[in-house]
Give the backbone structure.
Amino acid sequence: MRLRTFPKGGVHPSENKISAGETIQVLPIPSRVQLHLGQHLGAPAVPVVSKGDRVRVGSRIAEGKSFISAHLHSSVSGTVAKIDDVIDASGYRRPAVVIDVDGDEWEADIDRSPELIREIKVDAETIVERIKAAGVVGLGGACFPTHVKYIFPEGKRADTVIINAVECEPYLTSDHRLMLERADEILVGVQILMRAARVESAIIGIEANKPDAIEIMSRKARSLPGIEVIPLKVQYPQGAEKQLIKALLNREVPSGRLPLDVGCVVNNVGTALAVYEAVQKNKPLVERVVTFTGRHLPATGNFLVRLGVPAADMAAHLGIELDEETAKVISGGPMMGKAIAGLDVPVTKGTSGIVLLSESHARRHQVQNCIRCSRCITVCPMGLEPWLLEKMAQLDRFEECESAGAADCIECGSCSYTCPSSRPLLDFIRYGKVNVMRIRAARRQK
Amino acid sequence: MNPVIVYSVVVLGLVAAGAAVILFVVAKKFKVDEDPRIDEVTEMLPGANCGGCGYPGCRGLAEALVRATDKGDLGGLMCPPGGNETMARIGEYLGVAVEEAGPTVAVVRCGGSRAKAPAKLEYDGPERCSIAHSLFAGESGCAYGCLGLGDCVTACDFDAIHMNRETGLPEVDEEKCVSCGACVTACPRNLIEIRPLGRNGRRVWVACMNREPGGVARKACKAACIGCGLCVKACPEKIQAITLENNLAYIDPAKCIACGLCIPVCPTGAIQATFEPVKPKPKAAAAATAPSGS
């Protein structure tokens, strides 16, 4: 049988899933955590604690006040040391709650027993309410507040929940490990999401490079009505929402529209687990699985990390010291992740992995002239012309960027990856896209 | 005669005559009356279309000038590259009084040279400040300082700003700068300010925009303003040109007399000055004891 995939564009970078065999380890809690208030897409959360307050694991420390925003909970128990600007992954200082840890005391109403609760007792509204209360956001990396996806606008209906277990980014293995180790909980999470979306069917899309995960998920899903596991051909960027919908259902999300417009709600597999914990166990999003990996490292691993813990703790746990050999540290995967200043930055809700690259892998090649080979056009999964967008952005001709579809770019980086002249295509497209968005916002205000 | 030639001549002649009539009628009927002064004023302007006046090109300013003349007040309209001379000529032509503006120059408000703010990271993305600014705080870690990739240099139409390879900071060529403000807009960190040239070219400014508390600012850059306020105290009581806000000192050029008293008291050397008179006078040159800025 031919495996499904999305039809247009895409690349296949070396998979490098080195840490796929490492079981998820629980990382010890440090003496201090830093929780940034803007770890999700949308408006930053507003702190509801002040300096000196005692907090426990799961205490709400900041609230998302606007429609697209998410609550933030303490990931440790201790005292709020300060609410101040703290350096985040970009090197800019952004507001954060800093907590000094003592002990590990959880909020009393959180069920911490490992027991699996299959029966879903609550209705759709309560589910969305609990997801919101638990501060769950999309754990694939974009960090879109999950509850917002389930508040359907008037007249819109979904027919399928899609669970994104593709993990098409090279190096990252956190979703893979989750499926191997916590399949039952994930599947209950999927059922909860189906009820929240009021649909009868769910599809879990997994790339074929994870045969063990496909096997275990298919076996466990067999007894559950409506849940189907579909293996997919390995192709980057299949984990992108629109590409995944196209691959699984052969539906195309129109430009500027949402998956809901074609009847789908897409959630990451890690999010499904977080939803299970939020709804069945009343546990807020205070920890996530992070892959710590790199080809030149003596050891790699997958860790269950409390939010706000510095990434350096994972390195220390593996006995890794940053030396000359590591040239670049990336938060997220190497295709879409961001290079960061060092390992001191705290883990946030969106940190799916920390990838260390050696000098030879990190180095960008000398930029050369565009030779009009059109490889960027061939690989663009959105059917854009990256070379044109780059040129127009370079010349600050943002109206042309807009008409060439800059706003549709999903920033997957396939164009930059494939360019034989090593042109910084995505850097400029992103620059153009930001300005197109600014122009559009200004137009709306008029 | 070949009938083909005859037909061609006749048909084409008729078409030409018809078209001429249409063109004539259209030109008469849809004629846009334009003030001839606009063309004249446009001619007088430098024609660089730099946008420093805030209008789209020289013709835009010319239109605005003519419109303002009809109201009887130029209301601060000014061509920065043309300067007072050009404005005086235009004022004379239009028959309105032109306020004389003092000469101004672009000033770079960052002292984070390679030596003062050493790079802790290496940026290997595209050489554009606007892109680097959107990605990270900067190689030195100062989120307010110069990124050194030269967006201001690209923006300048007058070849008046250049990167100093040694310091990694842009330098303004006072002779060429027409203070059009293109670099001010181009800098994603708002580091460039148009300031009065100062009497005899004497001017003092705080070469830092870092609004972090002193400790944080100092960590990234040895030349950062730490907001200690010593300069505020050093400024003569009658003048009080220096204000301290958000951990950052600012010298108001309208009040500053360029006495230079604040320069030696600054513990980080964040205050820069240029005490090089445009027309050297023996007295002024003798007073130039303070370190001259870049």
